[in-house]
Amino acid sequence: GELLMDEHLSPRKLKVLAGVDDLQQVKALEMRVDTREISLGNFGVHLPNLRELKLNNSLLVSVRDLGTSLSHLCTLWMVRCGLSDLDGISLFSSLKELYIAYNNISDLSQLTWLDHLEVLDLEGNNIEDINQMQYLQLCCKLSHLTVEGNLICLKPNAESAEETDYNYRAEVKKLIPHLKYLDRIPASQT
């Protein structure tokens, strides 16, 4: 038990996980983790060429649990990880694709720092206010966005009643004019 705790994501453990002797070779890694019990430490230091990280169905208390040394990561999957906020996501400054479907995220303000973001999957989260989409205006390369399964698809915010003439697609397009695809359909189609 003690040895496993100390060694959770040491270079030795990472070599076993990735199935390689040289961690420099690792460009993609998929694993399930539970950060409530074990810290991941700054495991990215050992994986200088890691570009894709898939953590689907993990239990992450915070994005910050991933450490500060994954700034070279291009694609990150954190689907169904129990995340309630994105605090710390700005450390992933090279991200082009972020898949964070089926979490409890309601605040998108942290995403404004992701200058290279092209694909964002927010399906099935807790986004209750259409104005949260304004933060994504600053992601000037964002071309593919998925928001289906959020309250904003039904009404503009939690307080408002459902309006028959409300069209979330038109509202999102107004707020993010450079968007090409919304919920996997060309954004121009309302």
Automatic annotation (TrEMBL):
Name of the protein this chain belongs to: LRC56 protein
Originating species: Pardalotus punctatus
Record bears the keyword Repeat: yes
Keywords: Leucine-rich repeat, Repeat
Taxonomic classification: Eukaryota, Metazoa, Chordata, Craniata, Vertebrata
InterPro entries found in the cross-reference section: Leu-rich_rpt, Leu-rich_rpt_4, LRR_dom_sf, LRRC56
